[in-house]
C-alpha cells in the first residue's frame, strides 16, 4: 500500500514535464537558447496569483546576498525569481522527483543554475544542518502535511538565529466542510487544512516573533475572477497551470475560488523572525 508521501507525489506527478514545457515553448516559436523567466512564469509558480505575489513577498524583507531555502519548491519559479531579482542563493527542496528534475532543467534553460540548487526531500525531515539559512520561505505546501509541529520545527531548526520565515498559504477560515478536488489534493485523504491562528500558536511556542501578516483572500479572488474571464475568452494558455493539472485544472481552480468566496478557506502571507 502507498504511504502518504507516495500518494502526494502521485497527485502532483506529470511524467515528461520538462519535455512538455520545452515542446510548448517551441510551439510558440521561442528560441530555446534565449528563454527568459517570464516565458515560463505561467507554469513554474504553482500558487494563487503566481509570480506577482512571490515578488511582493520577496520585497517585504531584505534578501540581498543571503542563503534562502524554499520548502516545497515545486518547479522552482520563486527560487529563480529571488536569485535573479534579489541577488541571493536559493535552495529548493521538494518531495517530487519529477518536479525537482524539471526545476533543475528549467534553471539551466534560463541560465540561473549557478544561483539555484534543488534537492529531493521531505519538508518534515530536512537534510540540512541546523542554522544553515538566513531565510526560509514556503508557499502552498503545508496543506499536504499532517504533522504541522514537525513542519514548522524543521523550518526553525535550519533557520539561523535572527533569520526570517516567510509564508504564503491556504488556511481554513471556519469549520465549513471542504469539498475536493483542490489543486493540492484530489480528495480529503491527503489534505490537512488548519487555521492560521493554529499556525501562529505553533510558531509562538517555537519562539518565533510575528512581524507582518497580510490577508490575501480578496487579491486571490480578484485574480481567479480575471483568470476565469480570460479562459472563457481565449481558452487555456500554452504555458499555464493547466500544464501541471491537465483536465482537472478547471474543476480544481473553480472549487478553490468558490471556497475562498464562501469563506471556508482564506489566503494569508506573513513574516516571522526566529528569536
Ligand atoms: C501547490 S505546490 C506549490 C509549489 C511551490 N511552492 C510554488 O508555489 O510554486 C505544493 C508542493 O509541495 C510539495 N510537497 C508536498 N508535501 C511535501 C513534503 N512533505 N515535503 C516536501 N515537499 C512537499 C509538492 O510536491 C508540491 O511541489
Overview of the molecule:
The protein is 41% helix and 20% strand. The protein has one domain: 3-Layer(aba) Sandwich (Rossmann fold), CATH 3.40.50. The mean pLDDT is 97. It has helices spanning 4-12, 17-27, 37-40, 50-59, 77-86, 97-109, 148-158, 196-205, 217-234, 242-245, 249-261, and strands spanning 67-71, 89-94, 116-120, 133-139, 159-172, 208-215, 265-274. The protein has 275 residues and is α/β, with parallel strands linked by helices. The protein starts with a helix and ends with a strand. It is built from 11 helices and 7 strands. Helix 4 (50-59) crosses helix 5 (77-86) and helix 9 (217-234) packs antiparallel against helix 11. A 7-stranded mixed β-sheet has the order 3-2-1-4-5-7-6, with helices on both faces. The longest helix is centred in the C-terminal third of the chain and has 18 residues, at 217-234. It is globular, with a radius of gyration of 18 Å. Bound molecules: S-adenosylmethionine. S-adenosylmethionine (SAM) binds at residues 8, 12, 45-47, 72-74, 77-78, 94-96, 99, 122-124, 139-141, 144-145, 183-184.
Mean pLDDT: 97
Q: Which regions contain 5 or more consecutive residues with pLDDT less than 50?
A: none
Radius of gyration: 18 Å
Give the H and E element order: HHHHEHEHEEHEHEHHHE
Q: Determine the fraction of residues in helical runs and give it as a percent range.
A: 40-55%
CATH classification class: Alpha Beta
How far do the termini sit from each other? 42 Å
Strand order of the largest sheet: 3-2-1-4-5-7-6
Largest sheet: 7 strands, mixed
Strand tally is: 7
Q: Which percent range describes the beta-strand content?
A: 15-25%
The distinct ligands, each listed once, are: S-adenosylmethionine
Tell me the number of helical segments per DSSP (H or I, 4 or more residues long). Answer: 11
